[in-house]
Design brief:
133 residues, mainly alpha, globular
Length: 133
């Protein structure tokens, strides 16, 4: 069990670290765009991804007490997956790369939610409202 806890901790840490170049790239793309709408949505989304990465890195240091952050990140990824699937089914021009990436987010969402419950032993119903041991 100790080995799976360490693997989960490393996964959360690595995932959080990977958020930084993605967020910075989105922020840079927003800065280089000339329309206000694209700038605003790109900069806000990029900033959100940067701060979500920082929260995951922080949570990986004390999963027992910060598992709610990981669960909520999983829920955000689950919603993101659902939105991409909806868009790909109902709108034209959705890049196939986005659909593939959304499936990776679905896997991470499941791992984050189930892993947080298994590693901490805290029920999902408590983690969703921020209660830890």
């Amino acid at each position: 069990m100790k080995n799976s806890n360490n693997m989960f901790k490393k996964l959360v840490l690595i995932t959080g670290i990977f958020n930084f170049p993605i967020g910075l790239g989105m922020f840079y793309q927003a800065l280089s765009n000339t329309t206000a709408d694209t700038f605003i949505t790109g900069a806000v989304t990029g900033s959100f991804i940067l701060f979500a990465g920082a929260a995951l890195v922080w949570a990986s240091n004390d999963i027992q007490n910060r598992a709610s952050i990981i669960v909520w990140n999983g829920l955000v990824r689950l919603i993101g997956f659902s939105l991409v699937q909806y868009a790909s089914a109902n709108f034209e021009g959705v890049a196939t790369e986005m659909v593939a990436i959304s499936f990776m987010d679905l896997v991470l969402a499941i791992v984050f939610i189930i892993g947080s419950v298994k590693v901490t032993g805290i029920p999902f119903s408590k983690l969703i409202v921020g209660k830890t041991n």
